[in-house]
Give the backbone structure.
Amino acid sequence: MNIIFLDTETTDLDPGRRLVQLAYKNLGNGKIVNEFFKPPMPISFGAMAIHHVTNEMVADKPIFSGSALQSELAAELAENILVAHNAPFDLEVLKNEGVAFGSNIDTLRVARHVITAEQYALQFLRYFLNLPVDAGAAAHDALGDVLVLEALFDALKKIVAAKFLLSDDAAIIEKMLELTKTPALLTSMNFGKYRGKTFEEVAATDLGYLNWLLGSETQKPSAEQNEELVFTLKKYCK
């Protein structure tokens, strides 16, 4: 199996979001794709503020559904391992666009397992780990993020190899696949009235708040729940 680094830019952050820009690189054959598409719904202003793609910019672009690239990508993902940062986001987009996928590695979750950092956003890790990425790799541009993603993946492979005493490339990939399937324990809260506090600190002073938060999160449909948040809250709410 080869590795495919993939990133998407979308109409919004809602569960039904659709594709605006798709970029991916097949590590096996060196193929690089970077295409824009006209989505079946307007791009939200919030999304424009992030990726700076407007409805006017994609008005004359092709529709992804039924395109040659849709079938090509589906064929490539069926035979290879998809790598993405915050993979569930991109996987949901692919699902909305009718593209099936197989194995995947989420560099966000892997990073949470093996790196201690204040944040785990792709661009934060780019500078935190001093990744060797060309300065022209723009943030929140699908191709720019793919270039950063590839550098992050290479760095994580070395960290995983050292942490788990692995030397075989196949064993390292297998461990990354395993870590992707395993929720990581969160350390600090990045939202709410206890933003910046550790979960351990909040559990010692206001366990009732964590119990309320757990109940609130688990009342959501399972697909909308933050798996890592639920995993962490259950540890402290026992």
About this structure: Strands lie at 3-10, 19-26, 32-36, 81-84, 104-106.
